[in-house]
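Standup notes
- DV: blocked on the single-chain target, sequence here:
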Amino acid sequence: MRAGIPEHGRVPKYYAVKTELEALVDQLGEGGAVPTERDLAARYGVARETVRQALRELLLQGRLRRRGRGTVVAGPKLEQPLSLVSYTEGVRRQGRVPGRSLIGLDRRPAGQVLGGQLDIAADDPVWHLERVLLADDERVGLESTYVPVARFPALDREFDPDSSFYAYLRERLGVRFATAEEKIETVLATPREALLIGTPPALPMLLLHRLSRDTGGRPVERVRSLYRGDRFSFTTRLSGD
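- DV (later): unblocked, structure below
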């Protein structure tokens, strides 16, 4: 493949239209309104289904987004660092306003798997904190955090769920993070998750699993974060030995 064109040189019709649309997107700029499928089909001399497929790929890539019944050019993706900083800090670094909307905070038994990860018994209770992630009031993800109740007994009384959990741990309780294990994979959201985030179920998501430890090596939290694949990318810094 060279620049998306197969070696045999035959370019799918939808891909040729997509290339034309990418140039149009660059001209329109962020927030610019994209012409209707009918107008685009007439402009490029193709069927509306061909235009629809090209638009669908640009939507999945995050170049476009829906606004009401129309389509507009999307802004740049949020770049979240793969490091021991909170979502709040990562979003603020890019000049965006972070936010969270509480779905629920409840107690439940840890269970064998989660208990083993947090180094507690299976029947020990954990807090489950579930929140929708916001950037400039746009829903961009869903976060579930699990921490031992025994270590954070007043979480339901002291913590403001609209604020940064890491800031609460650091400033209120003096907890310092030292290491974390993190795994990233691509998934599709469940119907419930898609409804909470406000996306179609077919939109690819980036799923992060994190297990964080403090400076004493004790597990602090187990986090499951689901991010919109069209609005997020992740960065890290690598170095040689």
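- Follow-up: Strands lie at 64-67, 70-73, 78-81, 98-109, 125-135, 138-148, 177-188, 204-214, 219-228, 232-235.
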